[in-house]
Amino acid sequence: MLHIFCPHCGELRSEEEFHASGQSHIARPLDPASCSDQEWGEYMFFRDNPRGIHHELWDHVAGCRQYFNVTRDTVTYEILETYKIGEKPQVTAADKQEAAPVIAKGQGEKV
Amino acid sequence: MSAINVYQQNPGADAKAQSPLHHADLASLVGKGRNNAGVTLREKKFLGHLTLRGDGHDQAFAGGVHKALGLELPVALTVVANGDTSLQWVGPDEWLLIVPGGQEFAVEQKLREALDGQHIQIVNVSGGQSLLELRGPNVREVLMKSTSYDVHPNNFPVGKAVGTVFAKSQLVIRRTGEDTWELVVRRSFSDYWWLWLQDASAEYGLAIEA
Amino acid sequence: MSQTYRLASGGRIDRSKVLNFSFNGKTYQGYAGDTLAAALLANGVDIVGRSFKYSRPRGIIAAGTEEPNAILQIGSSEATQIPNVRATQQALYSGLVATSTNGWPNVNTDVMGILGKVGGSMMPPGFYYKTFMYPKSFWMTYEKYIRKAAGLGRAPLQNDPDSYDYMNQHCDVLIVGAGPAGLAAALAAARSGARVILADEQEEFGGTLLDTRETLDGKPAAEWVAAVVAELEALPDVTLLPRATVNGYHDHNFLTIHERLTDHLGDRAPIGQVRQRVHRVRANRVVLAAGAHERPLVYGNNDLPGNMLAGAVSTYVRRYGVAPGRKLVLSTNNDHAYRAALDWHDAGLQVVAIADARHNPRGSLVEEARAKGIRILTSSAVIESRGSKHVTGARVAAIDTQAHKVTSPGEWLDCDLVATSGGYSPVVHLASHLGGRPVWREDILGFVPGDAPQKRVCVGGINGVYPLADAIADGFEGGARAATEAGFKASVGNVPKTVARKEEATLALFQVPHDKGTARAPKQFVDQQNDVTAAAIELATREGFESVEHVKRYTALGFGTDQGKLGNINGLAIAARSLGIGIPQMGTTMFRPNYTPVTFGAVAGRHCGHLFEPVRFTALHAWHVKNGAEFEDVGQWKRPWYFPKAGEDIHAAVARECKAVRDSVGLLDASTLGKIDIQGPDAREFLNRIYTNAWTKLDVGKARYGLMCKEDGMVFDDGVTACVADNHFIMTTTTGGAARVLQWMELYLQTEWPELKVYFTSVTDHWATMTLSGPNSRKLLSELTDIDMDKEAFPFMTWKEGKVGGVPARVFRISFTGELSYEVNVQANYAMGVLEKIVEAGKKYNLTPYGTETMHVLRAEKGFIIVGQDTDGSMTADDLNMSWCVGRNKPYSWIGLRGMNREDVVRENRKQLVGLKPVDPNVWLPEGAQLVFDPKQPIPMDMVGHVTSSYASNSLGYSFAMGVVKGGLKRMGERVYSPQADGSVIEAEIVSSVFFDPKGERQNV
């Protein structure tokens, strides 16, 4: 259960108060008519699935009903920052260019 | 024609009215149950509830609200009160105003006058929600059974108001006194809350006040 | 004879309180303070179950949570059955009824035991996979017998009479484990003023301090425990949770604790008390002080009852005053285990010999044993035990651990108890629940928690810090550090004085060699709960399973409730040796929550019965109940489904309700529809962008139907929105879509179009909505309202304000039935009063309440869609034949426009919504039935669509349906066929989906 800092409420809240709404910073094309089918398909359906830093859109549905952004590490699940819509992330994948951890032998999924 | 339809929806005191917990017949339960109950419940019904939307960062908005209500716009997670009128922060552009029943139309008009020309929304939601007041030494335990929000006095001082998950739905918890809390509940869920609170309070004893 | 194996004195039991209990139908006695395991051992009960696969008799091995065999069924009545309770964790109470879960027909004579003996070699690892998976059709039959024989316990057949709940906790420091390190950590943290929770799975705090022969400050260690607990109890923000297992370590320091509040009191919780509680804890810092589990040695027949962990022997002797035998042989590779022999000796019992695998042990405890005259055989180990149902002897031989060989013939020693210790494994389970890799430490021959992002501190045995004084010091330091990191000013406490000892290193020994070799030696069990032998692990590696995770799955090592507590390290060490690699290279399997089994009751908490899910009611619900409504669940709402009169079934009731609406007037509670109040100068523009159709020219006083699509152009909600003032609209959504639509609107407003000046507020609960529908609705409403009901003054698709039944209302003239209809909206508190007046006035018009079923029939006759029934997220407005509702020329590229112009969306031959008229008017097409053009084609047939809605209608005189058919709109008059499961075929004609009043004359009156 994640603990998420709502930038509007100014507090850490339990994940169950929130709704995850996928990858953030995917702007709607300003002129959809000029998009090719492929471009429109990319906009609608294709999302990053990075190992590491990921910017996500969350909605504080049980609290202030505001959408905001979360920078989360998909490996550790650490939340590195949360920030309001319209703001830019302070932490990006480019900042975290360390070598990816080597997968130890036998590191499988939990069953 | 006005850009907004402001409508007196309250028929007055003569009309037959049923609060969200009408069917529970709380009045018949007064005085029953354990002595020295750890939790006392009261439905604060038929109050005027108004949702107020506007730009909290705009001085003109805060000033207009103050002019109309005599209340400072509350900051995040707080509720301010003046007599029977309370104003609660709900979100960065949303507040809940609760006034004595029957005053909601007049208050809305007053607010609209004070906020004239601003982009705001005021919506009468009096029929859609209600307040349940919980009082007593074990209310904190009942809340701990129900919500993942931290209700320890260090984190939840008097005057705080928090929208959160409660059991399997959502509501607003307000702490109005040392041992007194209010739940802002939606009408359609009120029976679920009533059943839940009876159950969660059972081991401490539940008393009902009319 | 009662309690033959109870020692005359000693233990933390209350000998004045005798408790009767039964095991497998036989009555025994024990004392208050016993665990069930201690009481069984006191009574000489050695066989507690049969093993999972080979069905061998099994006894109690351990004294705590790591016990693999004594997993019992508890409960004196059907309703109070609890499966999979570890006897070592269950406090004894008066009247306790326990039975073995393994063993069919019973533990002493066992069908599978014979099969297991004869077929031992026939059941290698992978046996179930290899044998039972083929042929597939036999699997169900096999499984039934395997499950019955394996005996995994059973659920009760009656409702649990007890209650369970959750408690949400928040703390600065959560300490897991109240042994020496955990107690010290709690003390250091609590003294700083931090909010502290201390949880321990045992009946009382203290861990090993409750049975240790060590002293603290010259006094029994338990006295130090009592003093610490007393100090903690006195602090206001400290929560002490004994009988509480921290079972899961989840993200961001969220941990779940399973507390057994009253399991020690009886079969049922005392009246008014909760039986078990799950604490959901959010901790700023976590201190893991879970300690270590002793590893058993792996040798021949090491599963025979009478083989036990050395530490468990000490625990039974010192804590419970029970000697689980008379004559002890101890086999060890470390100093610490000598305590078992010393405790045994001190209790006046015979220590036959100690076999120490090390060459020349000289530690303090070793010397103490020598001084007491105990025989010590060095470079030796128990290589096998013997006995039919209990140990009668142990063969001790010289071994070469480097060469993995037996180097002497050895000798058989008469004994009835073999205690073994192969070293200690830190309990790293919680530390790895989130994926943190344990790290191998050669100096302690165990895995310790590795680095992890969690804000946690590990102290004591889990870190491989075993000497008592060091563990306490580590606890103090860790507790203080955790509290400091949580923002408190904390300091370490005074470590009590302990006796200094010289302790020598443990020798690596994970499998005792046998002179016959692993494959032919008597079975050497690694994981007794899952019946995994050393030979099975070697076989798995020979068959090519090299990853520890694969070995685990192939052999079942560490599966299920066991989670590798005893066998994991031995098993992976055997696999590593077999593969010729080191333990660090082999790695360890991961552990997952829960650490120990949790009852379903505790998982459910209070969310069961009438509190299982929130149920939503409208303001008119009591009236529906009073008038005999049957209800339908629509999302969380209870909606009247139909209102049967005496003797009516659903068909008769719906037919009557339909007729009443078409002939006179009906009443529907439409309060559940989502309603959103929209205000702001950009409200109109916003509607233009989220609806498919145009809103720019909707005048005040008018209402319009709209469709909503997602960006892909697929319909996802619909409803009528009214303009109540120039910058003010009331939107309605589907009942199920209300919350979803509002969130979606907020998403676009907040993230895409923050410049638009508009606000949305849900008024679903505020307005109660009563729909009057039918040719007499106007006459009826006219009697109750001051609104001018004239058809010119109040035309279709407009709304008016006025009083209805004396209450201010907004009345919308819209229709979902095709009849003249009015939706009366009043503030919900006043709805019942208005309803009663409508009903009273409606008597002369035969005003008939109707439910969702009649609503569905009436709207389907008109071809009106229900989003979610006739749509499935893959249908466009064009597919629904609703192009009239699409404003392709609106200036802004509204949501869905681009999506509905994609290549696949504009292609010919998409599935389109049409009416379906069965050729036989009495045949009803099942909803969901697949459609084909040619019913005679071979299977698999080319399916061209399916039925979405289907009804037997009275107004029409024939059954009818709606459905989607490939290119259906161009196939009017053609036939489709629906092959049924029974071989019959229903033939239907493709027709317009508007079956009734196609010109809409009935609502324009």
TrEMBL record, chain B:
UniProt xrefs under SUPFAM superfamilies: Folate-binding domain
Pfam families (UniProt xref): SoxG
Domain of life of the organism encoding this protein: Bacteria
Name of the protein: Sarcosine oxidase subunit gamma family protein
Organism of derivation: Pseudomonas farsensis
The gene coding this protein: soxG
